[in-house]
């Protein structure tokens, strides 16, 4: 008969298996520590001015005012609540960076790559941003007042309640850009491409869209009092519920748009 009371045979290699697991855990911890140390070294080198590159670094709340960071690689860096007042970031790579709450007043961002960046409450007041790339950027309440944005690209960006007061945006591209609730009153958009852009509920009083492309743009529920649409392409644009009172736009242009419940230049309201 088989004796079922015998002790089970020990499994060969149990000790070796446990030892291997221990070694792997120690190696993983060592790798993580080395990675953390390397990241800390990169941050220290950047903050001390020995390096202009710090991609993916945690630079939140850092004071980088006046720093010369032209051509710097700061892709995917965490720059939340940082101060970059008057910093030189010309042609810098800030793609994918978190700039929430950052202060870039008077900074030089000419030709900088700010694509896919997060810019909630970021301040670009007076910044020089000619030919900068902000395509696919996302944010609420970013402030571009008095910024120079000639030739800049905002294609596909989602910007709620953005402020562009006295900004210079001539020749820029806002294709398929979302600007709902933004303040663009008095801004000159001459020769700017806003095709397919979404500007619902914006304050665009006395804005200048001379020669701009607004084809298929959603401009519903917005205030365009005194705005200039002369020589602009508004075919397919939706002005439903908007105010065009005192605006410079021809009947022929309006005929190419959707204008249900729109207040026309002469004060008449179109049927809904």
From TrEMBL:
Recorded superkingdom: Bacteria
SUPFAM superfamilies: Pentapeptide repeat-like
Name of one Pfam family that matches: Pentapeptide
InterPro entries: 5peptide_repeat, Pentapeptide-BTB/POZ_domain
Protein name: Pentapeptide repeat-containing protein
Organism annotation: Paradevosia shaoguanensis
High-level lineage: Bacteria, Pseudomonadati, Pseudomonadota, Alphaproteobacteria, Hyphomicrobiales
């Amino acid at each position: 008969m088989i004796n079922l009371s015998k002790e089970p045979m020990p499994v060969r290699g149990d000790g070796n298996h446990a030892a291997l697991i221990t070694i792997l855990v120690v190696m993983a911890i060592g790798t993580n520590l080395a990675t953390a140390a390397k990241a800390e070294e990169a941050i220290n080198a950047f903050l001390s001015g020995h390096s202009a590159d710090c991609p993916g670094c945690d630079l939140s709340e850092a004071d980088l005012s006046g720093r010369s960071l032209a051509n710097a690689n700061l892709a995917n860096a965490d720059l939340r609540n940082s101060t970059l007042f008057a910093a030189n970031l010309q042609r810098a790579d800030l793609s994918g960076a978190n700039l929430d709450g950052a202060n870039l007043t008077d900074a030089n961002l000419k030709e900088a790559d700010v694509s896919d960046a997060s810019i909630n409450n970021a301040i670009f007041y007076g910044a020089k941003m000619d030919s900068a790339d902000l395509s696919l950027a996302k944010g609420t309440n970013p402030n571009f007042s008095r910024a120079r944005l000639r030739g800049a690209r905002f294609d596909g960006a989602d910007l709620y309640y953005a402020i562009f007061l006295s900004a210079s945006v001539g020749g820029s591209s806002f294709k398929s850009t979302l600007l709902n609730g933004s303040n663009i009153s008095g801004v000159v958009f001459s020769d700017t491409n806003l095709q397919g852009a979404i500007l619902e509920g914006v304050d665009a009083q006395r804005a200048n869209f001379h020669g701009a492309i607004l084809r298929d743009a959603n401009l519903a529920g917005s205030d365009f009092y005194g705005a200039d649409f002369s020589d602009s392409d508004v075919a397919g644009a939706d002005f439903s519920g908007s105010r065009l009172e005192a605006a410079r736009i021809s009947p022929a242009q309006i005929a190419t748009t959707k204008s249900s419940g729109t207040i026309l230049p002469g004060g008449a309201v179109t049927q809904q």
